[in-house]
Amino acid sequence: MKRKQERSLVEQPQIEKLIQNVEKVVVGKRAEIELSLIAILSGGHVLLEDVPGVGKTMMVRAIAKSLGAEFKRIQFTPDLLPSDVTGVSIFNQKTLEFQFRPGPVMANIVLADEINRTSPKTQAALLEALEEGSVTTDGETRELDRPFFVMATQNPIEYGGTYPLPEAQLDRFLFKFRIGYPTKSEEMEVLTRVEKQHPIDTLESVMTLQELLLLQEQVKEVYVQDNVKEYIISITSATRQHHAVYLGASPRASIAIMKAAQAYALLQNRDYVIPDDVKYLAPFALEHRVLLSSDAKLSETTPSKVVKEVIEQVRVPAGNEQAQ
Hints:
Layout: H1 12-23, H2 30-41, E1 46-49, H3 56-67, E2 71-75, H4 82-86, E3 87-92, E4 97-102, E5 109-113, H5 120-124, H6 127-132, E6 134-137, E7 140-143, E8 149-154, H7 167-170, E9 175-177, H8 184-194, H9 209-220, H10 226-241, E10 245-247, H11 251-267, H12 275-286, E11 291-292, H13 294-298, H14 303-313
Parallel strand pairs: 1-8, 1-9, 2-5, 5-8
Antiparallel strand pairs: 3-4, 6-7, 10-11
């Protein structure tokens, strides 16, 4: 007996209202907004690689304001120290005690701007926060408030004075994608909206953090059938066996795809994952996790081409509905 497709775990208008609120600021980028929300709902983080001025900062600010969340921005520079990110203990001469001053990473939503412009030591300061949801300073581990979401950005054009993110750090990001330039009509709409006042200044919250936490818990209840799990594993395993790949996707990538697919199903008003969810989300979760061989790089093969080829070759399991 099959479960009815119309059954849902959450009222769809709640999430739709959040998306529409962000669209008041970010024009024509619904898919990218949805991907960001999928990452938040599944407890993941996003790496945006795009040129300046396409709305990366505005999108994350709009999401933060729509949720009424505490928002902090970290501008990564070559001289930034790990303590500038995580926080530092300062001696208080009045109390004769050290007092911890939290860094900007200790917020609900954090924009890590131009993350590849800082040293590997400072980049590594984010690793614990991204994976464990905590930071360790002066030998003490401090839990970060939930929800916690990091959107990091990097410029794909200017590589002078940058430090490419190592594979271990890239693997901590659920998705990597681009926003891209708007169409001519979308850019006209942008000009019209900001002509007198920027819409970000008047944006109001449409969802509380408590409601978001409840949605995150509901995402965990979205059912994933065994054949869908096998489909995910088949895709990630195929990246490890591809002739052009030096280092394929790890088991963490399989977990990332599954959790993202659960969140995407929730956005689609379903309480179960279908193979099409996996097929749609896999490129965003895999391309930054695939390291090409030297020969493949010389032949102008890209991670995008490899992942696309893998997805086309792996057989999609039959049956798009979940059995009860």
